[in-house]
Amino acid sequence: MSFRALALWRSGYAEDCKSLHPGSIPGGASSFFLMIYKAGQAAIYSPFNNLQAPNVLSFALIATCGNYALSIRAIGEINMQHNYKLVLLTSIALSLIGNAGFARDGMEKHHKAEAKAESHDRTAAPHWSYNGHDGPENWGTLSPAYGACASGTQQSPIDLMAARLAPLPAISINWKGFVPTVVNNGHTIQVNSDKKGTMVLDGKTYTLLQFHFHHNSEHTVNGRHYPLEAHFVHQAEDGSLGVLGVFFKEGQANPALQKIWNIAPLDPGQMKAKKKFKPGALLPRDRGYFRYEGSLTTPPCSEVVSWAVFDQPLEASRAQIDAFAGLYADNYRPVQNTNRRFILHTQ
Ligand SMILES: [Zn+2]
Q: Is residue 187 among the annotated active site residues?
């Protein structure tokens, strides 16, 4: 019998941790885990690298911060008959270590990981998250710089419903293959481009900066979430943003997605790919789209984004969706009021 387990240990999560970069992993946890692996002869795999591995214990470890605290999230497919003792032992041991306040070398490594992590919020910007007191409901009060999250009238995401059919032009997408850097930034898995690809939306040319993923989808269609949504973030010369949204529904495994999953760091940090990646493989064939004016869906929620969300979803396998959910179980902002905006949809 095997089952999926999602467990969360939070051991003495100290207040001072919250000012630190989220999700940085004390390297000690990894080495400890490796020790368990060697001792137990159990197969412990990255869920991103071994999606198909049957009957094994697969774990993602996310440890956060701190001189005093260690937070560990474990996910896995666990074969109960063979591995449950190991799981129990491991979880107890990790909890104990967390409580004991993991050692200074863990902290050193933590800082190294932090320095290495390429994240858009590594400045002094206040920490935010997807739940709890610094979750979406409170983003607007975490910092004056995040005010638009609460007071904005053109916020994203929104529910894509009651769209007006309009003769919208095809979006001209001129992306090329590039050797990407895949970043785990504490909020999502992000793929940084070489900034050479472009798109033309409403006559304006934008350069592809990066794309990243949300689980569940941020936009909904007639109130319904998809399990996954990719955002291709482009910037124009005037600084404004054009973001293309692509939904994924559960279905066949997606080979292009898998190339990214294979090198996605499980802990905050980044990995440079060895081969070129063609981002066009993550576009639907049918390019009908919804179009509206909105914002960033993360703090500071700036209302500078022209959105185009394709109406045809791509497919991703259950295992691929679960692998992402193992790292980011709910990195989506709830839908915002449409207010007086029009949503257009290609005819
Ligand atoms: Zn996004």
A: yes
